[in-house]
Amino acid sequence: MLYEKEESDVNISEDELLEIEKELEELEKGKASRKGVGAEVRRETKTVGITRVSTGVSELDRALEGGIPKGSWVAITGEPGTGKSILCMHFAWAGILAGDPVVYVTTEAEFRDVVRQAKMFGMDFESYRIYDISSSKEPSETPNIVVIDIFGLLKIARQMSEAIPTDAESARKRRFAALDIQTLVTAIQEAYKILGVLKEGGKTPARHVRLVIDSMSAFWADKPAMARRYSYDLKISTHRENVTAYLVSQYAMTTKSTFGFGLEHIADGVFHLWMDDVESSKEVRRYMIIKKMRMTNHAKNAFKVDIVPGKGFTITPLTE
């Protein structure tokens, strides 16, 4: 395995956030007429006017008229143990097979654990070039995947803080933290540079990139009331037509609701996962429903979820 390891300042007011919400609503209405007829895909396909990106789960692709509309932001929500991270692995693996560069942000586990678990489901990330952004070495060749973990974010945060001038006026500026949205945005831009997908001086990838952030909840764990603001900051800074993203959001165990309101609101699609109360059912029973997906006449009923050795995340329609 080639796994080499070792300035964005967005400030928007509440009024501006409301204006952005209105613009997003109008955009959604304007695109509604462009819905196409779905077809099963393995990698990427097109419906009428819409390029679709495979989720890596064939049954889910069928439920989405062929896949996720290219450039969409998909929030994956649910409590621990429902399969959110495995769904992200499938999405990243499908990207690798399709030739898409992948940026994989993981705050919940080390990427080596992601690699180990994925291999149990037939996804061998070790057979491709992986570069960890926290490495002190330059990549020997262009990687297929750039990993951003907590150590990578800490490295970027230190670089951003050191770049602040030490004069009296600038000394009052805060130092950047690892779990900071501006740090995340800068790390993602650095990953694009490493992948070689940016044109000189640009911030928009010139080719399609798959972005996974598992999870977003880590960035507002100590201030969940700021989730909506942070979600907008991230979308304004990084949302591009050539980037299709999976953004994981944890559900609080006590309230069974999103830990921090906001991500579901700005997302183009929402995959919600849950499970029966294990103390009552005496077994693990997982479920999934597509709560929304813009530009897609998606399946409206829930699915039963199974995590199958050698195959991974599978869904089957619930029997009536």
Please tell me how large the radius of gyration is: 19 Å
Strand order of the largest sheet: 1-7-8-6-9-10-5-11-12-13-14
Structural category is: alpha/beta
Main β sheet profile: 11 strands, mixed
Q: Report the CATH topology name.
A: Rossmann fold
- Provide the CATH superfamily: P-loop containing nucleotide triphosphate hydrolases
Query: Domains counted in the coordinates: how many?
Result: 1
Mean pLDDT: 84
The best one-word shape is globular
- What are the secondary-structure elements, in order, as H or E? EHEEHEEHEHEEHHEHEHEHEEE
Label the CATH architecture.
Answer: 3-Layer(aba) Sandwich
| Spans where pLDDT lies below 50 across 5 or more residues | 7-11, 30-42
Q: Please report the number of helical segments.
A: 9
The proportion of strand residues reads 15-25%
Q: State the end-to-end CA separation.
A: 46 Å
Number of strands: 14
Regarding quaternary structure, how should these chains be classified?
single chain
Helicity, as a percent range: 25-40%
- Reading off the top of the CATH hierarchy, the class is best stated as Alpha Beta
Question: Could you explain the architecture of this structure?
Answer:
There is one protein chain. Mean pLDDT is 84; it is low at 7-11 and 30-42. The protein contains nine helices and 14 strands. By secondary structure, the chain is of the alpha/beta class. It has a single domain (51-317), classed as P-loop containing nucleotide triphosphate hydrolases (Rossmann fold), CATH 3.40.50. It has an eleven-stranded mixed sheet, with helices on both faces. Strands 2-3-4 form a three-stranded antiparallel sheet, with no helix packed on it. The N and C termini lie far apart (46 Å). Helix 5 (150-162) packs across helix 6 and helix 6 packs parallel to helix 7 (227-238). Strand 13 (303-308) and strand 14 (312-317) form a beta hairpin. The protein is globular, with a radius of gyration of 19 Å.
